[in-house]
Model the fold of this input.
Amino acid sequence: MSRGGRLLAASILALSVAGLSSFPLIALGAGPDTPSATLAAAQAAFDQGHFQAAASDLQSIARAIPAAGVIAGELRAGQQVRAGHQLRLLSAAVSNSQSAPSTVGKRLAQVYASAQLAALDRPAAPRNSLMSGLANFLRQLLRAIFVGGGRLLWSLLALIGVGAGAALAVALLHRSRSRLPEGAGRAMPATLATCRERPERLFASADQLLQEGRFTDAVRASFQALLISASERRVLQVDPSWTNSELLQQARQVADLEPALRPLVAQFNAVVYGGRDPGSQGCSRFNAACRAAALGLGR
Done:
């Protein structure tokens, strides 16, 4: 892992804990205790450029705050930039804490564990080391949440519930859309509810449109006549809001009706929605097929 990557990873861990310290549940604590005072002295020595003195101060409180020992090692190794950044984060976490001073060592030891910071500097398998450090951090965070209880726990549970519900809704929507048959998004002719034409008159109109060379209108009229015939004879309850796939699903309940409608639906889609020119012969065959299907209804 590059130097910038290690610094960024350590910053993410530190800033996460510093932000969470504002909650009473997992506040880190502060006060005039020896570790806090020594940490402040180490920060002052570092700011003045006395790196060895700062390292000595940090090492002296390493048992109370393990992260201090890690930062001391960074200073002795000559990594002043990374050590200074971690030292500022550590000082901010302690100074911003509001709970009892005795919790400082325990809380910081959990979050800024030596193994976590050391794992960020391992040259081998940097991704695995970073993931291990983050997993350890999350494990300690969850332990603090469930041990302490409070508003944060219920907020997290609510967020998890909302997220799970949203994910489930998206999954169900995707599943329902993926299971729709081909052509499900194309609407049927929406004039069935208000159309007062008799099927015979519509078939005659389709023949006239065929003679005039208006093949698309002829196909539409023939198919509409077939649907009205099915609706009038109560063989198939046709709803004008149905899609073609819904029409076929209803037709499957009627013996021998769905096989006759399926090719007609496909041709209707290709001509009316797909823009295919059926030609005179294709339109004539489609009209004849619709007439035959209408005559066979109810038999």
